[in-house]
Design brief:
Blueprint lengths: L4 H29 L5 H13 L1 H5 L3 H23 L5 H26 L1
Length: 115
């Protein structure tokens, strides 16, 4: 017994927004409230994610595909940072959020084309 595509899409969209907002919130906390952060780094970290926001608000499947490509940069950087000794909790949270967002965005774009 399979779950209808419309229900999967609804769950995927909800998970996308939770992880997307979580990533943006992580960058705010990381750069504006913890030591070692800067506003310049915050802008550099959030600008690529904000590029796809208009398309995500319109629920265009291509925006979710572009988000997957953008997230590959965050995933590669966070894997390297997680493996380095002495790194903070932020790197682990970044890896989990970006991987979850990557998979949910990939599947959401597929489900959007099926509906």
């Amino acid at each position: 017994m399979s779950v209808p595509v419309a229900r999967k899409l609804k769950i995927g969209l909800r998970l996308n927004w939770i992880c997307y907002i979580g990533l943006l919130a992580l960058f705010v906390v990381w750069n504006l409230f913890l030591e070692g952060g800067s506003i310049t780094l915050w802008v550099l970290q959030t600008m690529p994610l904000l590029l796809v926001l208009p398309g995500m608000l319109k629920q265009q499947y291509r925006s979710y595909l572009w988000l997957c490509f953008i997230l590959l940069i965050y995933i590669c950087a966070s894997i390297v940072d997680v493996m380095m000794p002495g790194r903070g909790w932020q790197d682990g949270v970044l890896l989990v959020l970006s991987l979850t967002l990557f998979f949910s965005a990939m599947m959401t774009s597929r489900w959007q084309r099926m509906v």
